[in-house]
Specification:
The structure is a single chain. The chain is 37% helix and 18% strand. With 334 residues, it is an alpha/beta fold. The chain has a domain of 201 residues: 2-enoyl-CoA Hydratase, Chain A, domain 1. The strands form 3 sheets. Strands 3, 4, 5, 7, 8, 9, 10, 11 and 12 form a 9-stranded mixed β-sheet that branches. It has a two-stranded antiparallel ribbon with strand order 1-2. It has a two-stranded antiparallel sheet with strand order 6-13. Strand 4, helix 2 and strand 5 form a beta-alpha-beta unit.
Length: 334
C-alpha cells in the first residue's frame, strides 16, 4: 500500500513538473508575473532531421476536416485540431527564432464562414513574419481555399480538389408536411424578418431577397480576398472559376489559384528556400495531455448522462446547421 501511495505521489510530481515546464508564465509591465491565463507550449515531434548541426526548423501544421468554431481539446485535439490550437501553433512558430518557415497542410472541404475567416487572418498575420507555404492534400475547397489565400505560396497535388469559391445557406421547409399531419406552429416575432428561414411556412419573396443579399455580401468578400491574394481581377474570377465549381490542382494552377504542383516534400523544399534555411529540419507540434487534464476529462465523461440518438442518413458527413453560412461544396450541404 505504501509503495502504491509513493508511486502516485511521484507520478503527480512528474506531471506537475512537466506541466510547469511547458507553461509560458510571462511577465507583467512591471516585471512581475502576468495575471493572464498562461499558455501551455506544444511539444515538438521530428518529421525530418536537420542536416549537419543546423538548429533551423520548418514547422508542419495540419488542418483537417470541417472548419468549425467548435473547440476540440484533450485526447482528440491532435486528431481534429481546433481553431484555437491552429492559431496557437502559428503563434508559437512565429515566436520561435529557430523556425524559419511554416508549412500548413490543408485537407478540408471548408466549413463555417466566420471560422474560415478567423483562420485566414491568422495565416496572413503569420505570413507577414515568416514564409507560410500551404500544401493542399486531397481537398482544400471553399473555406479551405479561403484560408490558403493568407499564405505566402500555395502548393497543390495534381489530384487535389480545390476552389469551390462560393457561399451556401440552406434551410428545410416542412410546411406541406405539417398540413398533411395536422400540425401548425404559432410564432410571435418583433419584426417581419425575425423568423426568416422558418421551415414551418413558405418563404416570402422579400425574405428570399434578404437571405440572397447576405450570401452575396459574403461571396463578394471571398472574391476580394482571392483577387488580392492571387492577383486576378474579381470580374475574371466571377466570370470563370469562381462560380462554385471544384477544380483539380492542375486546373487551379492554370487559373492562377495556386503557385505550383507538387507533394508535401516539395512544400518543405519551398519553405526551406523561402526561409533561406536549406539545412532545416521539419517538426510538428503536439499537445500532450497531463495527468490533471486526463483526470478532468474522465470526470466530465463520467458525469455525462448517456443518451439515445436516432441518426437519419449515413452519419458520414457532418451535421450542418440550418441557416448558417458555409464555405462548402454543395455536396456537403445535403
Amino acid at each position: 500500500m505504501a509503495l502504491l501511495v509513493l508511486a502516485l505521489v511521484v507520478s503527480l510530481g512528474l506531471n506537475l513538473g512537466q506541466l510547469l515546464g511547458r507553461v509560458d508564465l510571462g511577465t507583467g509591465m512591471d516585471g512581475g508575473f502576468s495575471t493572464a491565463r498562461p499558455k501551455k507550449r506544444m511539444s515538438e515531434v521530428t518529421v525530418e532531421s536537420p542536416k549537419a548541426t543546423s538548429r533551423d526548423k520548418i514547422v508542419h501544421i495540419d488542418l483537417d476536416g470541417i472548419i468549425s468554431s467548435v473547440e476540440m481539446s484533450g485526447l482528440f485535439s491532435d486528431a481534429m485540431p481546433s481553431m484555437s490550437t491552429i492559431k496557437q501553433a502559428l503563434e508559437q512558430a512565429v515566436a520561435d527564432k529557430n523556425v524559419k518557415a511554416i508549412v500548413l497542410r490543408i485537407n478540408s472541404p471548408g466549413g463555417e464562414v466566420t471560422a474560415s475567416d478567423i483562420l485566414y487572418n491568422a495565416v496572413k498575420k503569420a505570413a507577414k513574419e515568416k514564409p507560410v507555404v500551404v500544401y493542399m492534400d486531397s481537398m482544400a475547397a471553399s473555406g479551405g481555399y479561403y484560408i490558403a489565400c493568407g499564405a505566402t505560396q500555395i502548393v497543390a497535388s495534381e489530384t487535389t480538389l480545390t476552389a469551390s469559391i462560393g457561399v451556401i445557406i440552406e434551410t428545410m421547409n416542412y410546411s406541406d408536411l405539417f398540413g398533411k399531419v395536422g400540425l401548425s406552429m404559432n410564432t410571435f416575432t418583433s419584426g417581419a424578418f425575425k423568423d426568416s428561414l422558418s421551415g414551418a411556412r413558405p418563404m416570402r419573396d422579400e425574405e428570399k431577397a434578404y437571405v440572397q443579399n447576405l450570401v452575396t455580401q459574403m461571396y463578394d468578400r471571398f472574391l476580394g480576398i482571392v483577387s488580392e491574394a492571387r492577383g486576378v481581377p474579381k470580374d475574371t474570377l466571377k466570370n470563370g472559376v469562381a462560380d462554385g465549381r471544384v477544380v483539380t490542382g492542375r486546373e487551379a494552377l492554370a487559373a492562377k489559384l495556386v503557385d505550383k504542383i507538387g507533394y508535401v516534400e516539395d512544400a518543405y523544399a519551398l519553405a526551406r528556400e523561402l526561409g533561406q534555411a536549406p539545412d532545416a529540419g521539419v517538426v510538428k507540434y503536439r499537445n500532450e495531455v497531463n495527468f490533471f487534464e486526463a483526470l478532468s476529462m474522465a470526470s466530465a465523461k463520467a458525469a455525462t448522462a448517456p443518451k439515445v440518438q436516432l441518426e437519419l442518413g449515413g452519419g458520414v458527413l457532418p451535421k450542418l446547421q440550418q441557416g448558417v453560412p458555409y464555405y462548402l461544396p454543395p455536396s456537403y450541404a445535403h
